[in-house]
Amino acid sequence: MNTAGTIDRPTTRDPQLRHLQKQEPTMPSTFDIPARSQADANTSRQNRTREMQLMPESLARAHMHERLQEAESERRALRVASARRLQRRAERASLRARRALALAVMQ
To answer: What SS3 state is found at 83?
Structure first.
């Protein structure tokens, strides 16, 4: 069988349907897509390089922030422990003073 045409666009011998033969392609051609210029590519590459160079700096900054938060938390915990220790000492002193007052009143 020697027929011209494709599966998508079979050839027709009907003169009324000959004008349907020419159809627009469904995919745009590569010339319709605007190509990126060399300057855009260089700018993109330069930004990417700058971001890559700044990554260790931002990592170090995040690490230092975390370490500062840990230190502050530890200082708060030490202050709370110290305050509790002082409170217990004050309560013991208060009890001693009460006992001494009670003994003085009874004699």
So the answer is: helix
- Spatial distance between the Cα atoms of 71 and 78, rounded to a whole number of angstroms: 10
Q: What is the pLDDT of residues 19-30, one digit of tens each?
A: 555 555 565 555
**Could you give the 3-state DSSP secondary structure of residue 5?**
strand
The whole-model pTM stands at 0.44
- CA 42 vs. chain centroid, Å, equals 26
Phi, psi of 3 (to 5 degrees): -110, 140
Cα distance between residue 18 and residue 69, in whole Å: 78
The CA distances from residue 57 to 4, 48, 50, 62, in Å, are 66, 15, 11, 9
CA nearest to 55, candidates 67, 63, 45: 63
pLDDT in tens, 21-73: 555 556 555 555 555 666 676 777 777 777 778 888 999 999 999 999 999 99
Q: Which residue has the tokens 């033969």?
A: 21
